[in-house]
Write a structure and sequence with these properties.
Layout lengths: L12 H7 L3 H11 L3 H4 L1 H13 L9 E5 L5 H9 L4 E6 L2 H8 L9 E4 L12 E6 L8 H11 E12 L5 H8 L13 H11 L1 E15 L2 H10 L16 H11 L8 E14 L15 H7 L7
Parallel strand pairs: 1-2, 1-4, 2-3, 4-5
Antiparallel strand pairs: 5-7, 6-7
Helix pairs in contact: 7-9, 8-11
Length: about 300
């Protein structure tokens, strides 16, 4: 999933702070999680398959495909198999994830891997035909992310992506609210706000919809282990620092038990799906000019840029 500090032009400072994440901690966590990520990534896998299936509804022959927030490379491989003539580029800010993605390749199914911040992509304007992004949104500022996606998308290029809505982990949020007033759970952005951000970025007629998934766990420890394996612990910048007292943890777990259904504890995930096209007008080049052409990228990738 990359952090959210919302555009303060659209929300007040206090609300923006709710979504702000400690990105240094996020990067370290995803680096450490890479080895065991796939075993716990049940939701990520299910949502990825839905996004891939939705590509069946479009007739695309992309030359360059970007898998933004590629993680361990499962979608990158699927995209290369789907579009064998395209150059597929897996981008992630966690080097550990890209090292794991390298093992996802085969001699006949290869894709490029680039370590980069999705909000500052090292590609030229209008150079990508398809951007695929699975559950990257919760870790990014949507205004900055969508503006960057719009910049690199070629005219009539397609963005298909997924994120998490505010009902995600609602059981955990409610349980902690009965213990103290600190922020123990990441905040997630509403579908309508994401749609507005797409429009601000210049995407044409974005289509968004929501689906809800319920993950089931034998006990709270199993849920906590999954969150740790996925690297998705609480990284809100305003979180309480230091260890939480054992008594508070027990109190929260007891409160969570109120949600038990038969023999399992549920964990809700509200998943937002978005699909939008880039218009014909080319975006303005980023002010710092820090982008490279795909021709230059080809020259660089065979060398030491690959992890």
């Amino acid at each position: 999933m990359i952090g959210a500090t919302l555009n303060t032009g659209t929300r007040g400072d206090e609300e923006s702070e709710r979504f702000a994440l400690d990105m240094r901690s996020v990067r370290r966590s995803f680096d450490r999680a890479a080895g065991g990520y796939d075993a716990a990534a049940v939701l990520q896998s299910a949502v990825r398959e839905v996004l891939l299936e939705r590509l069946d509804l479009t007739r695309l022959a992309p030359r360059f495909v970007l898998d933004a927030g590629a993680g361990t490379g499962r979608a990158s491989r699927a995209l290369k198999e789907r579009y064998p003539r395209a150059r597929v580029i897996a981008v992630d800010f966690a080097l550990g994830m890209l090292r794991t993605a390298k093992r996802r390749q085969s001699w006949l199914c290869r894709f490029d891997r680039v370590q980069a911040d999705a909000e500052r992509l090292p590609f030229g304007d209008a150079s990508i035909d398809l951007i695929f992004s699975n559950l990257l949104l919760p870790w990014c500022d949507p205004d900055r992310l969508f503006a960057e996606f719009r910049r690199v998308l070629a005219p009539n290029g397609l963005l298909t992506c997924s994120g998490l809505g505010p009902d995600t982990l609602r059981e955990l949020r409610v349980a902690w609210a009965q213990v103290d007033a600190h922020r123990h759970v990441n905040q997630f952005i509403d579908m309508h706000d994401l749609g507005d951000a797409l429009v601000r970025a210049g995407f044409a007629a974005p289509v968004l919809d929501v689906d809800r998934y319920t993950l089931k766990y034998k006990d709270f420890r199993a849920l906590a282990l999954d969150l740790k394996a996925l690297g998705t612990r609480n990284f809100t910048a305003a979180r309480q620092r230091g260890l939480t007292a054992k008594g508070k943890l027990i109190e929260m777990q007891n409160a969570y038990e109120a949600f038990r259904e038969h023999d399992h504890l549920p964990a809700t995930a509200e998943v937002v799906f978005a699909h939008a096209w880039a218009g014909g007008e080319l975006p303005r080049r980023r002010a710092d000019g820090a982008s490279i052409s795909l021709a230059e990228l080809r020259r660089k990738l065979p060398g030491n840029r690959r992890p």
